[in-house]
Amino acid sequence: MSGARPADGLEALKERLLAGDTRALARAISLVEGGGDAGRQVAQLTFTHAGSALVLGVTGVPGAGKSTLVDGLATLYRKAGERVGVVAVDPSSAFSGGAILGDRIRMQHHTSDPGVFIRSMATRQHLGGLAEATPAVVDLIDAAGHRRILIETVGVGQDEIEVIEMAHTVAVALVPGLGDDVQAIKAGILEIADVFVINKSDREGADRLQKELESLRGMVERPEGEWVPPIVRTVATTGEGIEELRAAIEQHAEDPRSQPRRQERLRQAWARRLRGLLDEGLWSRLLEAMPLSREMDGLVAEIAARRRDPFSVAEAILRRVRLKAGK
């Protein structure tokens, strides 16, 4: 049996999670992913206990070896005695909505290690390379005492940029020989990197890719004295360069030159999350105030048939809400 018994209550679930209980953590994450009042309450109860972990985002093009890089970093952190959390954000199945790739086929040699918590999440068509619930899930893993949290994103191109709102350090993985050597230009992720990783650097073209990255890195406008992303070469399948990558990540986390950018990221992240909560809350209040659930299908059908426009429909609904509130 996994998770909390109904009689335990959310307060008991929180206490077990804070004590490092893996089953409680898994149960709490399931509640958050499921949405609803229970998920919101468990996230609220644990929120102030989070904030101590270093969160690393690993992003980049498909085929860059992100999973292998994450696996190597997790191994090094465990050797250093750190408890590690891994959030692998997978594409959603178009039919089931579930993750196509799961934690059962990732990092299998870590599954028996109680110091490593691995969670695979489906994007469920959420843009930005991250599942919608990922921020709250990261907080829960943090609150449970995992001080290094690695987020591996889907790898879908420019939508990956959302990862910067959650990660203290962003490692952008590239590989030589995928056609356009500096794929980051097309993906729109060149500017978000705190560390560049040339993985599979034993391939032909690695030197050329590094030179192009060095040139393009200098074209990104940064305030004077701000952190300049280093370029680390790795062969993740053999472990080559993984220690250097870990050192670059830790240096970025501690370097005062990186702090202004990290603080701005944090501000942007909380602004977005607060707006999301407000949108969700306002919509819930709207549905409570008006019997819209019975009308929505008809309104949508009229808009789809272009008998009415969405702007006037939205304004009419808001007018009704204002009138009801005025009463």
Describe this structure in words.
The protein has 327 residues and is α/β, with parallel strands linked by helices. It folds into 3 domains: 1-48, no CATH class; 50-257, P-loop containing nucleotide triphosphate hydrolases (Rossmann fold, 3-Layer(aba) Sandwich); 270-326, no CATH class. 44% of the residues lie in helices and 12% in strands. The protein contains 11 helices and 7 strands. It has helices at residues 9-18, 22-34, 36-46, 66-79, 134-143, 183-187, 206-217, 242-254, 259-289, 296-304, 310-326, and strands at 54-60, 84-90, 116-122, 148-152, 169-174, 195-198, 231-233. It has a 7-stranded parallel beta sheet, sandwiched between helices. Helix 2 packs across helix 3 and helix 4 packs across helix 8 (242-254). The longest helix has 31 residues, at 259-289. The protein is globular and about 65 Å long. It starts with 8 loop residues before the first helix and ends with a helix.
